[in-house]
Design a protein that fits this description.
This protein is α/β, with parallel strands linked by helices and 289 residues long. It has a single domain (2-283), classed as 3-Layer(aba) Sandwich (Rossmann fold), CATH 3.40.50. It is built from 9 helices and 12 strands. β4 (94-100), α4 (123-135) and β5 (140-146) form a beta-alpha-beta unit. The mean pLDDT is 95. The structure holds NADP nicotinamide-adenine-dinucleotide phosphate (NAP). The site of NADP nicotinamide-adenine-dinucleotide phosphate (NAP) has 27 residues, from α1, α3 and β4.
């Protein structure tokens, strides 16, 4: 297989480039090389490269910032996906596109399945939902909803660090880590997302939407406790309620996702506790020269 990966410098993009390289040819495109909002450039790059799979990791992910930057959010998260879907369709390639648990409003009180109707509550979430619809313009397509991604350590202190890395770094440095005790998630380890994506592509799964999260769910506080039980620093966790923070965009309170549809067509994803343990072991591996 030849994979063309957009947003290849992002957290998931980098993990997929690493994982997919053992399974075929990878054409990794940073934003400078392929801007998905530049319709002509994106179509030309895809048509020249003629990959068998276009994998879209490009996204506008500033959930709070999107409230004031609606046009930008929809340009990247919705129209950019349409451009890639059409480019993939024109060359007979499969499109893989990643979406989010935020398409749900978080009021169900039980894990959401793919059959549950979305009800986005923020600009970011709405733009991602429209992007899901746009992905279906490709001939063969997969919309893979992930959540609370973790697995590529960014430089501490940079804005690109994910929430789980922020917790880990705070605990490692003995700093207080504020964590929600009333928001429930099903986290996704990028290594497991990569494996699940390859498994879907290699099988005969029908086009559609799949929840690609580690099995189970937890509050952010429970997640942080699991980390602290392994690396220490339990005393630095500060449980907070979502309502106590003045966030510009609403978050789903109970955003757990049910991944059993994926498990019916591919290997089931390990539990989130297993994924956290593997990631912490990976972070602590000795540096190679
Ligand atoms: N992170 C999470 O917790 C989370 C949760 C749920 C769903 N997701 C979804 O998972 C996917 C991967 O997320 P991630 O965490 O890997 O994101 P990320 O680390 O923010 O990476 C996104 C990448 O997209 C690039 N990009 C932005 N606009 C672009 C454009 N117009 N054309 C091409 N590239 C562009 C960014 O480049 P620059 O660096 O130049 O901006 C960045 O390299 C996204 O679809 C996201 O919505 C993520």
């Amino acid at each position: 297989m030849t994979f063309l990966i957009t947003g290849a410098d992002g957290q998931l993009g980098r993990a997929l480039v690493d994982a997919f390289s053992a399974h075929g040819t990878v054409i990794a495109c940073s934003r400078a090389e392929l801007d998905i909002t530049n319709t002509a450039q994106a179509a030309a790059v895809v048509s020249r490269a003629r990959p068998s799979v276009v994998v879209n990791c490009a996204a506008f992910n500033d959930v709070d910032g999107a409230e004031a930057l609606q046009e930008r959010a929809f340009d990247v998260n919705a129209l950019g996906v349409l451009t890639l879907a059409r480019a993939a369709r024109d060359i007979g390639a499969t499109l893989v596109h990643y979406s989010t648990d935020f398409v749900f409003d978080g009021t169900a009180g039980r894990p959401y399945s793919e059959a549950d109707p979305p009800s986005p509550r923020s600009v970011y979430a709405a733009s991602k939902l429209v992007g899901e619809w746009m992905a279906a313009d490709a001939g063969r397509w997969f919309v893979l909803r992930v959540a609370s991604l973790f697995g590529v350590a960014h430089t501490p202190g940079t804005s690109r660090m994910g929430s789980i890395d922020r917790i880990i770094v705070a605990l490692e440095q003995g700093q207080p880590a504020k964590v929600f005790r009333d928001r429930v998630v099903s986290p996704s380890y990028v290594v497991d997302v990569a494996a699940a994506t390859l498994s879907l592509l290699g099988g005969s799964a029908p086009s559609g939407t799949y929840h690609v999260v580690n099995t189970g769910h937890c509050t952010w506080y429970e997640l942080a406790q699991e980390i602290a039980n392994i690396i220490g620093g339990l005393e630095h966790l500060v449980p907070v309620d979502v309502a106590s923070l003045a966030l510009k965009a609403a978050r789903p309170q109970f955003g757990a996702l049910d991944n059993s549809r994926l498990a019916s067509v591919a290997d089931p994803l390990p539990t989130w506790q297993d994924a956290i343990r593997r990631y912490l072991a990976f972070r602590q591996r000795p540096a190679t020269i």
